[in-house]
Amino acid sequence: xxxxxxxxxxxxxxxxxxxxxxxxxxxxxxxxxxxxxxxxxxxxxxxxxxxxxxxxxxxxxxxxxxxxxxxxxxxxxxxxxxxxxxxxxxxxxxxxxxxxxxxxxxxxxxxxxxxxxxxxxxxxxxxxxxxxxxxxxxxxxxxxxxxxxxxxxxxxxxxxxxxxxxxxxxxxxxxxxxxxxxxxxxxxxxxxxxxxxxxxxxxxxxxxxxxxxxxxxxxxxxxxxxxxxxxxxxxxxxxxxxxxxxxxxxxxxxxxxxxxxxxxxxxxxxxxxxxxxxxxxxxxxxxxxxxxxxxxxxxxxxxxxxxxxxxxxxxxxxxxxxxxxxxxxxxxxxxxxxxxxxxxxxxxxxxxxxxxxxxxxxxxxxxxxxxxxxxxxxxxxxxxxxxxxxxxxxx
Length: 395
Ligand code: SAH
Prior knowledge:
Shape: globular
Strand content: 25-35%
Structural class: alpha/beta
Bound molecules: S-adenosyl-L-homocysteine
Strand order of the largest sheet: 16-15-14-17-18-20-19
Largest sheet: 7 strands, mixed
């Protein structure tokens, strides 16, 4: 049996049910497992601690499938994990008015390296590690069994796959291929989603509840939606009664789809202004023109890819939040997010506090935000807690 043996004392995080084993924790690899093969995990004292997928090329050579020594990692195992992830979503209150949600949230659903999102009649599968890569056929087969008649499309076009010795991969896995645009609904708003070319698996489903929360602070007036993608926060602001929305994004394709979403929802095109380009430059320009808004949304991409990027990322978050504060009318609302797993909530809070201070504005937190419940966060896996946000009133 292929196995890894940990160094003395390096079993602590595993006993706390953290699902990653870093290369520095491993004393020995026995029987040369192939990429993705299941390995037994032993402590230095030779206790069997669980089972994981082996990834020789990765800095995380083992991702744990199960902490139960008595379990087999087989089709039945994946059936249980997938069925339980899917069943959880059936019980979540927030999903009654939408047909798009995350069915499987990787580590936080006990399936490291696997994301499955549902968009109406389609599933989008994203495999980022060599473990689920080996089990792809089984996983697709099981998804087909549990949720029959859906088209299953793969969007494993992720650079992180290279760290696992894998190349990006996309295409049909089962059933019908998705049409160019799939329509979904979030509350009162309809969105067109490009499952094939869009960012992530097509849409930022994790922000669903926050789009509604932010909408609740709109009382007419003007909204600046920075890093708008296809207009999510901007459209929910219009639905909530905003008079004018300005969408800022570097992706022209995203802004174009945002325009289509506007038409789909029957809004007058003159109520929205698109500003394509680099948000940092655009916000500076708006500030220099003395523009002001009633509500500003800042939902930047992940600035801190790794812990080493954190100081540089913190400066970028500070910069964008400073500009955000300067662009708000007195008494305006700042809705600010970070999706960097390495940046903790307390640091986001500090960055926003520093930004308000530099802008010479008093600010108070009204709400703290996280991902929607279909993106559960395993308490044993802090890395899963990537999305965090604050709604602040800025005087
Ligand atoms: N708020 C969106 C999701 C935003 S994702 C929603 O609710 O759907 C981050 C967005 O930032 C992406 O659309 C990406 O194209 C854009 N982006 C990345 N870097 C940027 C930059 N420097 N300037 C402007 N937009 C940028």
